[in-house]
Amino acid sequence: MTRLTQLISIALICIFPHSAIGDDDHNPVGDAVEALPIFDAHMHYKEPAWGPYPVEDVIELMDKSGVAMALVSSTPDDGTIMLWEYAPKRVVPELRPYHGSAGAYNWTRVAGMEDYLKGRLAKFPHRGIGEFHIHSISMWNERLFQSIIDMARERDIYLHVHSGTEAVRWLYGLDPDVKMIWAHAGLGVPANNVHKLMSEFPQLLADTSLREHSILSDDGSLDAIWKKILFDFHERLMVGSDTWVNGQWDNYEQIIASNRAWLRHLPRELAENIAYKNAERYFGREITMDLIGTR
Ligand SMILES: [Zn+2]
Questions:
Q1: Residue 262 in domain
Q2: Counting CB atoms within 10 angstroms of each CB, which of 5, 40, 110, 120 has the fewest?
Q3: How many angstroms separate the alpha carbon of residue 86 from the centre of ligand 1?
């Protein structure tokens, strides 16, 4: 850095102490990222995992990766409950609608879905409904979603929605106050449009699971648009692993490491928010490394 740019950045920090956090000179958390607990906001414990990865093994993988707590949803919901009953301190349960023949493409049209969801919510303390998919406009079953929004509002819990931008807008159209976590920040949605949607809806939260390779460029630096998303919305993002197939469990430690690999580029405050502090606020739980080794 030249003497002049140094002087200019010092002057800017004096004039704009808060916006200075966006400055490249603001120290990234670096190696200290390893000591941060992680809240995994996108975990599934689906039936094919129950045999090869019994509950003790799942908690052990979390321990090895410094994952203090996870938001868990499963097909069927029994997987979530099994893991939550084994390790209630480590699991925030979330109700996934999928069970029996109800899956990602047809669940909004399955008879009895509303009663199924009501029954499970009455029985267990789920803190969200999801992760569910809204793949296309044909799944916009307004009557069912009104009822799901009512269930969520009554319990003050989140919807965890895997969809493109249009379904998010549609859901806010049904209820502008619905609490929503956008799964994978839209997955296939280009970063520019992620930024646009999150600007448009200041209450929209998102998990960044499966996005780690877009966030970090090939040269090992943060992608420019993603950097803007992370800096602008660091109070609304969480990381996630998405253990949707057993291959993700096989690689669990690497997946969490690949998330720390981009978090390390952020200033401490931002890295802490995205790693676990936002989840503390959203779910009213205390998340510390002391949870490692407990259940
Ligand atoms: Zn998922």
A1: yes
A2: 5
A3: 22
pLDDT of residue 36: 98
Is residue 50 a contact partner of residue 64, using CB atoms and an 8 Å limit? no
- As a whole number of angstroms, the distance between CA 10 and CA 4 comes to 10
**Residue 111, burial from CB neighbour count under 10 angstroms (0-12, 13-18, 19+):** exposed
Closest CA to 104 of 174, 178, 187: 187
| In-domain check, residue 143 | yes
**How large is the average pLDDT for residues 58-81?**
98
Number of separate domains in the chain: 1
Between the CA of 242 and the centroid of ligand 1 the distance, in Å, is 5
Query: Which residue type is seen at 96?
Result: R
Q: How far is the CA of 96 from the centre of ligand 1 (A)?
A: 10
Q: Confirm whether 16 is domain-assigned.
A: no
Residues recorded for the chain = 295
Query: 173 is written with which tokens?
Result: 């159209």
pTM for the model: 0.91
Cβ neighbour number for residue 76 with a 10 Å cutoff: 16
Quick check: is 6 in a domain? no
Read off the CATH number of the domain in which 264 is found: 3.20.20.140
pLDDT value at residue 26: 81
Give residue 50's pLDDT: 98
How far CA 147 is from CA of 108, 144, 154, 206, 239, in Å, comes to 12, 5, 11, 23, 29
Q: What are the tens digits of pLDDT across the range 195-219?
A: 999 999 999 999 999 999 999 998 9
Residue 17 pLDDT class (50, 70, 90 cuts) = very low
One-letter amino acid at 168 equals V
- 120 CA to middle of ligand 1, Å? 20
The parent domain of residue 154 ranges over: 29-291
- CA gap 100, 124 in Å, rounded: 19
